[in-house]
Amino acid sequence: MKRKTWVLAGAGVVVVAAVIGGVVVLSGADHTTSAAQASPASTMQVVKGKLSAAVSQDGTLTYRARPDGSPYAVVNQARGVYTRLPDTATKVDCGGILYRVDEHPVLLLCGTVPAYRALHTGDAGQDVRQLNRNLHELGYDAKAHVHIDPADNDFTVKTAKALEVLQRNKGVYVTGALASGDAVFLPEAVRIAKVSGEPGGPARPGAQVLSVTSDTLHVQVDLDPSQQGQVKTGNRAQITLPGNTTVTGKVVGFGRTAQAPAGQDSSAADATIPTSISLDDPGKARGLDRAPVRVQITTKGVDDALSVPVTALVGKSGGGFAVEVVRAGERRELVAVELGLFDTADGRVQVEGDLREGDHVVVPSL
To answer: From 3.40.50.300, 2.30.30.240, 2.40.420.20, 3.40.630.30, which CATH number describes the 3-55+306-362 domain?
Structure first.
């Protein structure tokens, strides 16, 4: 810790300034100074109002994927030859066509269970339930003049009839059953991030053909593990975009494991935790991808607190802190204070002591 020593003219008191965690704290002896003993002081007011603590970080605006920032992998289960693959940045909705094998469409259906078996009438399970939910939410049960309960785990005759309508609509073989290679299940509608397959190349079951993200912009921040104790899901955030435009958002998730940066000189101590921040209005950031942004995450707050500039703090010789208050007749008085929340953005700190809103406290002259 670096220390510098100044002598206050006319006060006869040695004051030491210590840099503690980026905050300048002054320390000196307890004293009361009259107007005759001191030169005119630079002062600022004691304020009552909201304070907030925040973590500031650089981040990246990109399209949301997994909590650790990695894209979803599209694993092909069809056999044949890739005859049509999407372009990068193409958007595909649930129920849309992702790509074609032997000119047969492979559909995107939404769900968390990958296609691992063919589904027929009489089957049951979570994979059947997500198929039923797709058929209902996309309206194919209504088009087949049946009603499917989206929470139903059973592949019924109603499922088969609705599936036939979907297959007919998308140009898939109309069978009333779903082969494992007919569809890919992913959690949501997607945006193509990378194409791994090649048109005319062999389509083999188990091979990755695409990498995809959601079509929703978010911000990814790599937090130091020590900061994760401060930052919580739901914390509000302000994001400064290129061009100095600001948007708001909130913390929605963290990666499961800390990740060390690439490079020979990196170590476990350099590991960070991927943190995802959703945007309240993603449309305000539309057109940007992989853009650097500045993020300020509000971690704590108080609504009605007395505060002073951090630079007004004086360390008492017997321990603790005080501020120098200018009273009536320019009389200066050292008032002991208890510290609360530090508002790093505004450079103020919550205080409790013999102070009132509007009091003037001494701060270093500029």
So the answer is: 2.40.420.20
